[in-house]
Amino acid sequence: MNLKKIEDRIKKLMEKEDRKDVEFRYIIAMSEVGDVGKYISHDSKLNPNARPHGSKDDEILAYGQAFIQLMALAHLRDVSVKEAFEKGMQNWESADWKKVAEKSIEKILGKPACVGSAKGLAYVVNEYNKIENFKEGQILVAEFTKPDIMLYAKKASAIVTDHGSTVCHAAVVAREYNIPCVVGTGNATKSIKHGQLIFVDAEKGEVKILE
To answer: For 78, left (φ over 0), alpha (ψ -120 to 50), or beta?
Structure first.
């Protein structure tokens, strides 16, 4: 069944509905989407402690209702379902959203805390990447620097932090060991992936993602 036939059937069904206002149809559509979420949150593999929520056939029906109600909403908003699908697929295939996201984080700005520059692999300190595994020559990237982190700082080729000023602990230690350092970037740990190749220009207070 093609989209045009589905759209025509929805149009006929909508003619029989008592409530044709957009607000009401939006609530119905979001309710159906929310029901899909229940099957995900109650999945025994994803959440072993959750009680089952319906059968697989029920889940298939939930997806169908969500799709159909969203199409009905599109109809009320005078949006072609076929055109919407085509544009959506084109956008996904061309990955425009990803290109925009990558472009927006290509350069990260902060405050120069110790001048110099370095290129290397980022070691993003978080709950998964413990500082104990930090290797000499990597670039230390952290939200802020605690004493246990700074014990490893002298092995870093550069230091980058989300928070802090030019007189923060990271800046002081960086100057002590003459390590290029950029602080106060605000988003380095979120924008830089662990293991990515980056370039730190502490003269300008910039961090560039190279790959």
So the answer is: left
pTM, to two decimals? 0.52
Distances (CA, A) of 208 to 126, 192, 195: 20, 9, 14
Domain ranges across the chain: 3-94, 107-209
Task: Confirm if 68 and 10 have CB atoms less than 8 A apart.
Answer: yes
DSSP per residue, 111-180:
EEEE--EEEEEEEE-SSSS-GGG--TTPEEEESS--HHHHTTGGG-SEEEESS--TTSHHHHHHHHHT--
pLDDT in tens, 19-38: 889 999 899 999 999 999 98
Cα distances (Å, whole numbers) of residue 187 to 57, 85, 147, 164, 207: 44, 34, 21, 12, 11
Q: pLDDT by residue (tens digit) across 80-121?
A: 988 898 888 887 877 655 554 444 457 899 999 999 999 999
What is the second-level CATH architecture of the domain 107-209? Answer: 3-Layer(bba) Sandwich (3.50)
3-94 under CATH 3.30.160, yes or no: no
